[in-house]
Every structure is written in structure tokens, then in C-alpha cells.
Hints:
With 264 residues, the protein is of the alpha/beta class. Helices cover 35% and strands 16% of the residues. The protein has eight helices and ten strands. A five-stranded parallel β-sheet has the order 5-4-3-10-9. A three-stranded parallel β-sheet has the order 6-7-8.
Amino acid sequence: MSNVRSDKPFVLAGRTYQSRLLVGTGKYRDMEETRLAIEASGAEIVTVAVRRTNIGQNPGEPNLLDILPPDRYTILPNTAGCYDAIEAVRTCRLARELLDGHNLVKLEVLADQKTLFPNVIETLKAAEVLVKEGFDVMVYTSDDPIIARQLAEIGCIAVMPLAGLIGTGLGICNPYNLQIILEEAKIPVLVDAGVGTASDATIAMELGCEAVLMNSAIANAQQPIMMAEAMKHAIVAGRLAYLAGRMPKKLYASASSPLDGLIK
């Protein structure tokens, strides 16, 4: 069949990952819960807000890298809390210094504190500077297909459109825009923000996303470690369903078994 989908590895910046679940490190009760939840998720990439989390810039304070060592996890520093391109670029430069030349970063430039919606104008500015400076830029953006295309043309290695606003748990609010982004994409597309439960993650993967990044959905669950494991399975199920290809939807019933040979 010509429309059969074949699986392909999940590759970022030349490195192949087995898990398609990326997780954040904020909002947990303590370091131990952070460690246990991330272990349960099976994630290999963990994102860290450099402006809010100590990864070595505050000597004498608890260091997140003590429980999430870089030799076990790929640390993805992000620019959460930045509201213009200058702040975001400065934060990425600090992260590269703290992580011994690490170039993989998650760029997010926010518009306001109420919505945490991306400021796409400042995001484009920051992306241009960071790519020129040799960073491997994964970028949080709106679900606007034109902006996603422009970010790919700049040289970002992955675009990460929101499913819903950060921390809302609303799920994928506009699957149609996401489908357009996926159809046009020549780089990995990851859903970032808005996932609330396992079914949201599965839907993102069924649409064809390469991976999903989440934080609040796990950290704010009543039992974060259990939810982390649920998300691990949801990502796998969604990917397999995407590769398998769903049955067509029909308005009326269709018998599961043929009618020939029935006893009369």
C-alpha cells in the first residue's frame, strides 16, 4: 500500500532518542518527586528554566543536575520568563556557559504573564541571532503555520507549537492548524504546552507529531509519578496508532463479520 507509514528515528541535533516524551522539571513538590516522576516518564530529554532553576549559577544551593545528571539525561535549557529577544539570547548564552558549550536550547519568548502566549516577533528575532551563533534551537511558537515555516527557514531544528496555553491542560485546541504545520514541516514538530492528560498526548502523536513536551500535566496531577508513567504509555500508543493508520469514519454501522455463511 502506497500510504503505509514507516517509522523513522526521533533525531534532534544529530542524536537519536528512543523516548518521544520530553518533560519539564518545574512545579514539583521537591527534588525527590522531580527525580521519581522523570524516571517514571522514561524521558531522555528534560527541559530546565535557566532563570528559575539552579544548574550551577548559584553555588551553595541545591543543583538540579545532582539528581538529573547530564551523563544520563539530555538537558534542554529553556528561556522561560523571557519577554524579549535580548533576554532570551542572554539566557541561552548563560546556559551554554554553565553546561560546557551545550548548544541545544528551547527558545520561548513570552508576550505577557496572563496568557504566556508566545511573542512571535521577538521569537523570530531571537531565533535569527541564536542560529547564527551556532545554537541548535527548538522553538516554542503559536500554532500559526506561516510562523512555523519562517522559523524552519531561519534554521531552527524543531518547531514546538502550543496545543493550548501553558499550564491550562485544555488539550489540543486547534488540531486543524497543527495538521497544516505537520503537512508542511521539513523539521520535527513537537506539541508544547496545553497537554492535560494522557489522551491529549496520544492525540498529538496520532496527528503525526514527532514528540510531545509537557510539565504541568505531570507535576500538577494528583499523583505525578503515576501520571508520568501514564504519559509514557500514551506517547507510545499514539505513535503506534499513527503508524498503523486509523480506520475511516463512517456515518452508519458496518458489520464486523461477513454475512455469508450465516445459519438461516
